[in-house]
Amino acid sequence: MVRPHSSRGTLHWLAGPLLAGAVTAQIPGPVDADEFEHRRASHWAWQPLRNDAPPAAGHPVDAFVDRRLAAAGLRRSPPAEPHVQLRRLWFDLLGLPPPPEAVRRFAADPSDAAWAREVDALLASPHHGERQARHWLDLVRYAETLGHEFDYELPNAWRYRDYVVRAFDADVPFDQFVLEHIAGDLLPVPRRDANGGNESVQGTAHFWFVEQTHAPIDAARAEADRLDNQVDVLGKAVLGLTVACARCHDHKFDAIRATDYYALAAFVRSSRYVQAPIAPIDFADASYRAVLDLQRQLPVAWAHAATGPGWETLRKVPPEQWLGDGAAAARAGDIVLAHADGPRTAWFRTNDGFGAEPWRGPFCP
Q1: N or C: which terminus of the chain carries fewer CB neighbours within 10 A?
Q2: What value does the mean pLDDT take over residues 74-98?
Q3: pLDDT beyond 50 at 283
Q4: pLDDT at residue number 176
Q5: Cβ-Cβ contacts under 8 Å for 65 (sequence gap 6 or more)
Q6: pTM assigned to the model
Q7: What is the pLDDT of residues 36-53, one digit of tens each?
Q8: What is the sign, positive or negative, of the torsion defined by CA atoms of 130, 136, 141, 145?
Q9: Rounded to whole angstroms, how far apart are CA atoms 267 and 314?
Q10: What is the DSSP secondary structure assignment for residue 309, as one 8-state letter?
Q11: What is the pLDDT of residues 14-37, one digit of tens each?
Q12: Could you give the residue ranges of the DSSP H alpha helices within the chain?
């Protein structure tokens, strides 16, 4: 190994190859059509579903496992002792060891019928939903805070946690479960609980368990990173695919194009965060209309409290011009330096949170 004679020489010695590599590095280009189709045709995950007959008699799962074991020159382990078998069952379905009385009961009668009774009892337990929900909550990175800076709480995050537990306990079909996660707020006939509460809309909360800053320096990048995380979680949890790897270019290994990524990102971006009602609401009910009317009076009351005597002057100016060029100041001595609607601003607006008028959509308590 040759040692350079000076620190400056060391820098040139180390940086030379690195800079040369940086100059020649290039962003991968689009995957050509032939390579893309080869990926789709060669991997099992992209093949159409088909029904394969079991290769032997007996339980179909055992038959397929035995065939693969035989191909590898292996064979199954001998049956486990009754107490070991029951312990595995309890840990698998409840995440807890069996109590001594359960072990004694099954050890005294380790028949197939007794085994079926044990399985049915654990599947019927509410703790089964809690155990299985933990796996799904890990997939969707469940959290009850934003996880950054001041770590603000996510309102009502616990409702999603309980929704997942109830879904497992109620044996909700997986396709229904996924549909509620993707568009539970748009279902024409949502799934409801015994009290009429909307279960389906709660599934959409998974999109918002994402790390978010309180005041990002680069708002556009923060939004892009949030969308990337939402697409990444959706792809991994539902498809088992790293769709987010196609954010900057076509996927290097899978049959996923960058256009696929941005199609999903556009779908996610079309949604907005809102605290949706769970209990049924009659929008024609007099009490609802009265609450809505009070809600719309609040901005006026807040403005009056903030402006004091200047309110009489401000009320003569249309609200959209309160911060416009040449508009009356809210209070004596106030000077407007910049605002989002100014003709010379470089700011931008997106979503209804920055709309030109108050939100007048469905009531959200």
Answers
A1: N
A2: 95
A3: yes
A4: 96
A5: 76
A6: 0.70
A7: 888 888 888 888 888 888
A8: negative
A9: 41
A10: G
A11: 444 444 554 455 667 788 888 888
A12: 7-24, 33-42, 60-71, 82-93, 100-108, 112-124, 126-139, 157-169, 174-183, 219-234, 258-269, 286-307, 311-314
Residue 251: half-sphere exposure toward Cβ, Cα within 13 Å:
17
User: In the prediction, which pLDDT does 324 show?
Assistant: 46
Residue-wise pLDDT for 319-345, tens only, equals 555 544 444 444 555 555 555 555 555
66, amino acid identity: D
Q: What is the pLDDT of residue 287?
A: 86
d(CA 329, CA 335): 7
- Provide the pLDDT for residue 329: 46
Cα–Cα distance for residue pair 101/91, rounded to 1 Å: 16
Classify residue 315 as left (phi > 0), alpha (psi -120 to 50) or beta.
alpha
Half-sphere exposure of 348 (CA within 13 A, CB side): 6
* Site of tokens 């009351």: 301
Q: Tokens 């900057």 correspond to what residue?
A: 248
DSSP 338: -
Q: Is the dihedral of CA 262, 263, 265, 266 positive or negative?
A: positive
User: Tokens standing for 67?
Assistant: 């065939």
- Are 231 and 256 in contact by the 8 Å Cβ rule? The answer is no
DSSP codes joined into one string, 186-240? T-SS--B-TT--BSGGGGGGGGG-S---SS-SSHHHHHHHHHHHHHHHHIIIII-
Q: Quickly count: other Cβ atoms within 10 Å of residue 45's Cβ.
A: 10
User: In this structure, what are the phi and psi dihedrals at residue 192, rounded to the nearest 5 degrees?
Assistant: -125, 155
